[in-house]
Structure formats: structure tokens, C-alpha cells
Amino acid sequence: MSLDVRDLRQQRRRNVLHGLALLAGMVGVLSVTAWLLAGSQGLVAVGVAGLVLLLLRPQVPTSVVLRMYGAVPLPARAAPELHRLVAALAERAGLSATPRLHYVPSRLLNAFAVGRPDEAAVAVTDGLLRGLDGRELAGVLAHEISHVRADDLWVMSLADVLTRLAHALAYAGLVLLALGLPLLQAEATDIVLVALTLLALPTVVTLLQLALSRSREYDADLEAARLTGDPVGLARALAILERAHGRGWERILAPHRRGPDPLLLRTHPPTEQRIQRLRALTPATRYRVPIHAEGYAPTGYDPVRRRPRLRATGVRW
């Protein structure tokens, strides 16, 4: 596939439709759960809650997330080339404001974006700045800025809220059944069926949430390749990140697993597939953003040598 604008638009439309379908599925699961518990009144309550979420767009404050990781603002004088790169990527992405750069004093190779498109922040670890070359780091930053551009941070927050609501309602229904209190929509002969349905719904909505996350990652990869014109740079970065620490949370949940990771339980697509898709793209004839080949290690910051550890916030860095 080329990086032609028409091809990218078609792929982007497919990704958007896929994401909307998954979100609709999550809303459907939540609606079924509410109907089993409270009938039409439950459906109305879900509808009202959905409208409130869309209007208020709740999300965790950017400052809170940054503090969890110990992130501090990275001044332009310490990394002028990095700031120029982020500004160029933000301009190409059409953002109204350039995301603020933050530095995380950690050996881990990681980057993340938080906030809305008009007030976003991008945090990078010391390990990432020193472990990737210019092309690779540009690809990673373009990927994060692509998440900001698509408002994926809010989309995934909304998906998380829907999942939590579905879980809470389903478990509440199971408690009512255990106490012998009849559900409004359940006859005595339907109790077993209702119980089995309530048991299955949390799993279904969780799988839909994970599928949505994987869909957004593919879309961000494609958009990142468009922003930089260099899909190979991001592909190389993904290979390095995979070798460095892989899918950390999955290894924590199943540290002794010998078989391959189950796709349905991943928040991200398999790295091998992401790399293959990127390498199948035809690079642009020249880089579309200024790339500093020597790298972007900040001046005035000593390399972090202490080992990452689990903090009180539950974050390892």
C-alpha cells in the first residue's frame, strides 16, 4: 500500500467504521444488561447516562496522569530539536495547539499522550530518548500525536466507562438473583437463562473494549506513517520496544504461559502484524518532518541508571 492520500482516507474510513461498530456493540451489551435489570426504565437510564457522557466528556485530568509517572516539563533549551519535531508533527496533524513535552526519568522505553487535542501533553522516558535514533523516535511521537488527533484518549475513556457500567450492572443482577429477588423482566423459569446471560455479558463487553483498543492502534500506526512519510522508522521502533519489554501487563497476568498470547486478550495488536503492515507501505520520497539522525537525548539530564520499580500509584517506572 502506498501513502497516497486516497488510500489513506479509505483505510481511515474503514477504521472509523470498525471503531463505531465496536462502540455500538458495547452500548448494546450495556443496554441488554440494563433491560434485564430494569426493563424499559433501565434502557432510558442508559440513554440518559450516555447523553451526559457525550456532553460532559469526562476524563482523568492530564496533570494527575503526568504526576503518576513522575513526568516533568521538558524545556525547549534542553531538547530544541525534539521540540521542533513535535511542533512539525502537530502542524501536519492539524492540531490547534502543539502538545506539551514532558520528561519521565525512567530507564523504560515508553511514551504516552494525555489530554484533549487542544490541550494535550506527550511524555517520553529517558530510556526512549537515549534508546532510539531520530527516525524511530519520530515514528513513536507521530503515533502518539495520531492518538491525540483522533481523540482516542477520550474514546478509550468512554469505552472504559461503558465497560465498568456493564460490569457493575451485571454483578448487581447476579447479587439480586443470589438473594432471591426477582428481576423485572425474568419469570421463574427464566432465572437460569438470565443468570447465564449476566455472567457472559461482562466478558463480551471487555472483549469489545480490547478489540476497540487494537483498532485504534492500527489507525494510529497508519496515521503516523502519513505524518512522517517513513513507515520503516516506526516499524523499527516497535521491534525495539517489543524486545525491550514486550506486553508488560500480559506477562504480569500470565508469567508462566508457554503458548502464544491470545489475540482476544491483547490491548494492542501483535507487534509482528503491526510491523508487517508498516513495512508493506511505500515510504515517501523524503521525510515530511525534520528528523535529527543523531537522536534526541536531552542536554543537562544525566542518564537514568536506577532500575524501574512499582510505585505507590500502581505505575512501574
Give an overview in words.
- The protein has 317 residues and is mostly helical.
- It has one domain (5-253, 262-279).
- The protein is built from ten helices and four strands.
- It has a four-stranded mixed sheet, sandwiched between helices.
- A hairpin with a 6-residue loop joins strand 3 (111-114) and strand 4.
- The longest helix has 52 residues, at 5-56.
- The two termini are 37 Å apart.
Features of the shown structure:
four-stranded mixed β-sheet; 317 residues; mainly alpha
Elements, N to C (H/E): HHEHEEEHHHHHHH
Kindly name the structural category: mainly alpha
Number of strands: 4
Give Rg in angstroms: 22 Å
Return the domain count.
1
Strand order within the widest sheet?
1-2-4-3
Number of helices: 10
The helix fraction, in percent, is: 55-70%
Largest sheet: 4 strands, mixed
Shape: elongated
Unreliable runs = 247-265
Structure at a glance:
Helices cover 60% and strands 5% of the residues. By secondary structure, the chain is mainly alpha-helical. Strand 3 (111-114) and strand 4 form a beta hairpin.
Topology readout:
Elements: H1 5-56, H2 62-68, E1 72-73, H3 80-93, E2 100-104, E3 111-114, E4 121-125, H4 126-131, H5 134-149, H6 152-178, H7 191-228, H8 231-244, H9 248-253, H10 271-279
Parallel strand pairs: 2-4
Antiparallel strand pairs: 1-2, 3-4
Helix pairs in contact: 1-6, 1-7, 3-5, 5-7, 5-8, 6-7, 8-10
